[in-house]
Structure formats: C-alpha cells, structure tokens
Amino acid sequence: MSLVIVGSVALDTIETPRGKVVDALGGSAVYASLSASYFGPTAIVGVVGNDFPTSGIELLKSHNVNLDGLETQAGQTFRWSGKYLDWNRAETFSTDLNVFADFSPRLPESCLCCRSLLLANIHPRLQLQVLDQIEKYEWVACDTMNYWITLCPDELTEVMRRVDIVFINEQEIRQYTGLDNVFAAAEKIISLGVKAVVVKRGEYGSVTVLEDDLFFAPAYPVQDLKDPTGAGDCFAGGFMSYMATQPALNKGAIRNAVRFGTVLAALDVAAFSVEGIINLDYSDLQKKVNQLRNWA
Amino acid sequence: MSLVIVGSVALDTIETPRGKVVDALGGSAVYASLSASYFGPTAIVGVVGNDFPTSGIELLKSHNVNLDGLETQAGQTFRWSGKYLDWNRAETFSTDLNVFADFSPRLPESCLCCRSLLLANIHPRLQLQVLDQIEKYEWVACDTMNYWITLCPDELTEVMRRVDIVFINEQEIRQYTGLDNVFAAAEKIISLGVKAVVVKRGEYGSVTVLEDDLFFAPAYPVQDLKDPTGAGDCFAGGFMSYMATQPALNKGAIRNAVRFGTVLAALDVAAFSVEGIINLDYSDLQKKVNQLRNWA
Question: How much is the pTM?
Fold first, then answer.
C-alpha cells in the first residue's frame, strides 16, 4: 500500500455563514483518503456504525480507497455537529462518539507494509497502538488537536518521538510547547527527532520547519469560502500520498507535498463536506501547484 | 534624485512588552529614508520643530539622506506616545502634531524630478499637493492608514487614481473597499489604475496583487521582536528605493523590491526606534533576501 490513514469516519452536521448540511460525509480519514487518492493506492483504517450510508462507501470505492481496515460495528456512526462562528472557530453542538468510542485500530494484512502512514487526529494512545502494529514503512506522520494536547501531552510526545512528520496548527504548537515564537516551537519538536514540522496557518498558508531549512507556502486563494471542515485532513492526506510517490524525504519532495496539500485544502473549503475534493483531474491539481510555485 | 519621500519626522515615546524609549527618532519619512538609503540617493520632505535633536539630523546625513526638503519651524516636533498591547495593536496616549499641524509639503528644486516618489502616511490632501508639484518621475507609491480611510475616503481614492503602487494592510484594505476577501479588495484598487497593490499581513508577510499576477512573500523570521513601530515605512522605503534602481516596474523587480522591504521591516522590529535599520551592510541585506527567496 502507498498510504495508510488511520482516523475517523463521521457524519457531520455543519452550519457556516454560507449554508448548512446534515449528516454529511466527514471525518479525518475520509477527507484525507479522498485527497490522497489522486496520487496512489490509499487505505483507511477506521470504524463506522451500521447506519453508515452505502453512498459513502461507494464514493470511497470510486476513488479506489481500500476499505479492508474499515470495520462496521453495530450502532451509530461517529457524529459531529457544530456551527462556524467565523472561518477559524467552530462552536460544537454535539460530539457523539458512538461506535468510535471503543475504536481500537487494527491494521489488516494489506496495511502492515506501506510507504506512508498518516496517523490522523485521534487519541495519541491509539496512534501508538498503530505504530506498534505496523511492520514496514518509509515515513510516518501524525496530526493532532488542542484536545489531546490538554488531555495527554505525554502520550502525544511519545507519538512525536516515533514519527517523521508532524502536522500542527499555530495555536496548537504554541499550546503544546508553551512557546510564542512558532519557529522556536517547531525547533523544540524537531529536537524530539521529527524530520519536518508543518505548521498550518489557515488563510496564511503554512511554514514547514526542517532541521536545516524553512519552507513558507501561501494558501491557495479561495474566492468563495463555504465550509472549512477537513482542510487540515485534506492537506495531510495529499501531502503524505504525494510523499509516497517520492524516493526520499528531501527538500524538493516536501515542497511539492506541501503545495499539493495546500491546493487540496483550498478545494475542500470552497465547498461543503467532501464535495470540493471528489472527481478532480490530476492535471488541474498540477496546474494549481504550478501557480502556487509561480506566486512565491 | 532616486527616491523622494514625503512624510512625518517625529519623536516617539514607545512602550512595548520588551521595553520603553522616550522621544526616540521616528516618523514615516525617517524610517523609510533610512531603509531606502542602502539602494541610492534618497531625499525627505517634511518638517521638524527647533527642538529636533542634532543627533537625528546627523544620523540622516550619515546615511546620505538629502534634507533640502526638511523644513525647521519654530515650535515643537511632532510627537507620538503609545503602548503596544500586543504586536499588532497600539494604544495611543498622545498625538501632538505641533509643527506638523500646518505642514504643507513643498518640494525643493532637487526633488522635482526623481525615479521613485513615496507618499508616506500623511493626509491625502497633502499627498495630492505633492503630486501637483512633482515634474518628472517613473513611479509613485502611497501609503495610508485607517484614520484617513475613515476621515476622507474620497480624497484617498483621488490619490490612488494617480499612483502606481499602493501600500496598505489587510485591515485597511478591507475597511477601504468594504470587501472581506483581500484579493477582491485589491482588484478593486487595481481597477482605479494602480499597477501593484502591496497588502501587508504583519507576521505573515505580504501579498502583492498586480493586474495579471500575485506574489506572496513570507515575513522574514524575527527571533526577538522588540518594537513594531515603523515596519511598514521601512518596507515601503526599501521597496521604492530598490525600484528606483530598476529599469521597469516588472514582476522580477517587484518581487525583489518586496523581499528587500520585507528584510528591512524585520530588522526594524527587532530593535527599538530606528536602531535596527542603521549602519547595515548591503551584502547582509542581499544575503537575507536570498534566504527569503530560498524559503519560498
């Protein structure tokens, strides 16, 4: 497998200043795998309830997402409901973990060896469980969120010690390290043995910190923002799937990976749920990546 | 003359989370001209009171800043006093216009012809007065602030119709155009006939919008921020002075101009008052510009 993604599969009810969707396809593994699907074979490891719509499964299959690791459990699928007050801040109405409450990721045979492994935003304990199972991979990345930073910073540090790439946003990296300067904060994570820290800055793009390099990428301009849900997952999925096509984790590869992730995140936020990241042409992604390169 | 700068010359009393200075050299024309001095002959047009310290004059002269257009009037120099609550927001304690209250810019003979003209942040009516006097120039730029946008938007629009380059920050361009999307907002200013709109984004750098191009530049990383005063003026001064060395206002020239402006702004904020932008080596500026290019 090129890329294995461990994360959530969810049904989201989302309100933004531009509209509302009910029980729409969502979850970090879904956003990340659809974005990843443009670069090579991608598998997800997660869990859904028996209420999960067939259309969701069909959509993932139509993008050649391998579902060997997607369990179906009796009960309801993980549901999140919230409203974006502005484009950077959501108010959560409800988080119903449902079958996700007892999720214990188990990699199927087909996922034990892969080039890229993405530990999407789940409990660090589960991320560690995955790392204990996997047999062979080239590079592994983790995502996280403020919730885990507050709840279990030590387990998160343990995860970071075992990954090559960390995706984290500005507020999170400041919270995690206690440092206001994002460059100093990223250095602190690099000192754990991480090779690349990708600090996401929302509408301002990202800065990727490596041991001996920096890479600033602007966000791809979005004319009409509709729903920010999943942007970070699309970024990480596109990034890691592109990396799986590369022989080495070097500067050039990482820069292009950031650019592809950036473009996918922009396409995601221009539509509700996963509408912006399905049925895309690779050539259009490449064209947008070239624009981004020319604009910097 | 390569560059003529019309703006304020001031004595600032500034408090930031990192310290305090009293009656320190400041004002848009001072910051901009010191930054500009590394690229070619620069002149300032402004006014000071007879209390203005000789050391200030000597410093400008040591940077070869032409002072033919700097009037000395009986009375006190323009004084600003404030405190930065955070790095983006200052609380003003007092603004004493003093001799600046009756400032009516008059270009001396030596300043009537220049390659670059920078109308720094002063009343748009005064900016128009300067435009009526100047005889020959290649390109002219204006800076502005929220105060003028609120007070006299029509006069500001009249200025913009007559300049090639507009320096403006994100909040200001949103306020001026009433548009939330900065790209759409910049297009609106481009439609007035402006060739390049440089939208400043603080710690996130800048985006320059041209009729058929975009250019994103990150901020040059600052380890230890001390005093943000003058950052925009240093950016504009460095930008316009670099442009004065260029044969045409094309993509490549504008990109390098942005990079030099960015580096000078970063050097400025790393020290109080003008301490960070004096006695620099051009080769060090060039080295930092190259870093910035390599990081994007």
Answer: 0.94
